[in-house]
User: What shape does this take?
Amino acid sequence: MINFFDPASDKSSDLGTPARDSEVQVSLNIDGRAISVPAGTSVMRAAAMLGTSIPKLCATDSLEAFGSCRMCMVEIEGMRGYPASCTTPVSEGMVVRTETPRLAGLRRNVMELYISDHPLDCLTCSANGNCELQTVAGQVGLREVRYGYDGANHLAEKKDVSNPYFDYEPSKCIVCSRCVRACEDIQGTFALTITGRGFESRVAAAGGDNFLASECVSCGACVQACPTATLTEKSLVQLGQPERSVITTCAYCGVGCSFRAEMKGDQLVRMVPDKNGGANHGHACVKGRFAWGYATHPDRITKPMIRKRLEDPWQEVSWDEAVSYAASEFRRIQLKYGRDSIGGITSSRCTNEEAYLVQKLVRTAFGNNNVDTCARVCHSPTGYGLKQTLGESAGTQSFDSVMQADVVLVIGANPTDAHPVFGSQLKRRLRQGARLIVIDPRRIDLVDSPHARAELHLQLRPGTNVAMLNALAHVIVTEGLLAQRFIDARCETEDFARWRDFVSQADNAPEALGPVCGVPAEQIRAAARLYATGGNAAIYYGLGVTEHSQGSTAVMGIANLAMATGNIGREGVGVNPLRGQNNVQGSCDMGSFPHELPGYRHISNEGVRAEFERAWGVTLQPDPGLRIPNMFEAALDGSFKALYCQGEDIAQSDPNTQHVTAALHAMECVVVQDIFLNETAKFAHVFLPGSSFLEKDGTFTNAERRISRVRKVMEPLAGKADWEATVALANALGYPMNYHHPSEIMDEIARLTPTFRRVSYAEIDRHGSLQWPCNDAAPDGTPTMHIDQFVRGKGRFMLTGYVPTDEKVNNRYPLLLTTGRILSQYNVGAQTRRTGNVAWHDADRLEIHPTDAESRGIQDGDWVGIGSRAGQTVLRAKVSGRVAPGVVYTTFHFPESGANVITTDNSDWATNCPEYKVTAVEVVKVFQPSQWQKRYQDFSDEQRRLLKERRTAEKAEVRR
Ligand code: SF4
Ligand code: SF4
Ligand code: SF4
Ligand code: FES
Assistant: This one.
């Protein structure tokens, strides 16, 4: 999958207009050659399918044809004039000529007009060699321009360089409107428009004087669509045209977009979304397309380091020394405190192969099951809830399935910010007429976005999801909206009857639970009716469902609704958890939880254990090990003393920061493997430098269970990929691991995991990507699950009694804080804070409703103190009607914000997933940072000094 770069590669495969899906075939003749194509196909596309490239400028196969440039004229027998081949559909028996002397003359004339208003700086232009205008000028044989530059032209127009990632150079614009249509059709933001008419027509970004100030969300679709150098990546301007490309997968969110990493030498020039990407079909967001500069940021630490105490300066050592030291510390601690005194955390940022190795290391070399992953704090309730009801811990559909949905219910998720490429696809479906229900405490963008808005927004009080789901179920059952035939055929009868009786009770009626949720009963009834009777209905949910004390209950409530209405087991329906991190699905699949071996098989199952014992040559412990919160408790109790933490920043991401940092302080050996000195690394004794996704081979698994290849485009800056460091650590601990390439690790995973049995790098390369289960029963993978029967056999309705959270508002803490993400930043921000994305969001803010702000004397931009039962912090206020009165909201991308200083230890009853989404707080106007922030600043400054001393010593050594 390493391609020598053909600058036109993507464009030469551009068939001009989108494919049509029709069972009716139409036969025609083009330049004397016969072809049959699906009805609705354009003449241009049909010609391209024959290998005939008709000159074009305004057409591209990712967009519907527009017919403005007139470059693609053809002659068609029986038709007058010269129709545009991009907008003319084929018809039976049609006879087309694409090249005649008359057409050649006309095309040259049109091109001459374009070029007469275009700077002739091709040799120094960033697009030289990869410009469609240049290519088409050559294609039509233009040799001279008769008009000169004396008349009116646009050559002196000013460049807009405001966007951190791309420039807009209007003098090069041919007003083909591909950018405008890309922004509308692909991205769905409608930020661009063509102002003026005729000669005055110009592209303009709406809502601001320049791109940065406009409504543009910097997805880059317009840049990709532009046939000239008018919209160009700054990185391309700076580095020049790439020489080769490698297909790989985005390392940010769970959409799992596929990209061509375009390289020049070992420098990344740009990331171009791959048209063949199963999850993204050539689209991307600002993070994946542009925010990759962190990978070579000067803050990267590329040498292993050790220190005895947190107060000591870091000492740079060789890989061997660092790994031996870590191994000797782990062994010393086990000898002194017992086998179970150490554990590991796998990373959802790392590859499947790397997560697999870390859990294997813990279960073999550590000899216990003390392994957990960050899914503990995000989607562990999904794993539990879907396993109980449907039998498999994963979402049921492909993203593309949404294009068959008639009704979409989004609950506790914000796709346009957190899963932007799926958000764009969803908006496209809404523009086609699907109806939307949003259940969220906040007025997210989807509630009212350009040309797509929610029919119903149930703005519930944080913490009341289960009450809401029960009220919806009540309406479905009591108003006779059940899919009884589906239930009778596919679900456990007794469990269904018990559930039906439970939800039918009067105390589950909207009239009873509406006031609990803060939503009028009639709105709940309308939503239930729409979901149950509107045709194909699909549910999409996120952390706004899982991160609650009843997160698992809510997931089961969602699965109950889907089964009750028969909305499962086909395209357009289903239960779809929108996974947060790039590989959170994968890290769970790989056996990262303390109670499960790879493939979600319980550690207590003797047969399963025996299989792994044979393969791994060790005896496995039969009991589940410690979860992350249990590790913290045990550390504070003195029984848990050492941790191997790969690619995870628990000190910033886990709730109740002060509790977490106290636990880390109490450990004798913390080994952190990361690309930066993150918040957790400030408490580390061993630092193993990590590798970015650009520096290694492996696979990620996205929210659709899609396994995609991650391919190395540059050598690891620290000399080892993450999997190699784990192998070295296992060997140093006396447990032999011998892998020469991650493909061998995947082969072992496939041998040991029934749902991965037919997965291999060769098969992934052959298919592009594979959705598990992929085994003998489904050799090409499984886009839609539970088609004929549920994985567990019959679907199981679970009782979902509503239990209000212990986190109650009172006079002291009268507001409810809920948290979420923003488009331009990503989780703990370690990557995005080190990119140009800070231009959009350089600090976390507290959203507060105008009424709550006014009663506290708070104005937009004021510093405010936020206090909860766990702690206090200080942020700037953003007065906003997006939140309801009584609710405040913040993001958590900056460590100094201390959002998790406020969140409490409350957690999901089944999985310990923290209740990030509900914290009772008070907000007051203040003038200085909180005590915690002052302590944080002092500690961070000290740790930075200790890091700097190490670096200074290193430089001094070099000079000597
Ligand atoms: S970058 Fe995306 S959002 Fe911005 S103008 Fe271009 S297509 Fe529209
Ligand atoms: S900016 Fe590019 S895509 Fe947009 S109208 Fe101009 S030339 Fe066409
Ligand atoms: S939507 Fe997610 S996977 Fe796709 S480019 Fe953006 S961050 Fe990457
Ligand atoms: S490509 Fe057909 S009119 Fe422009």
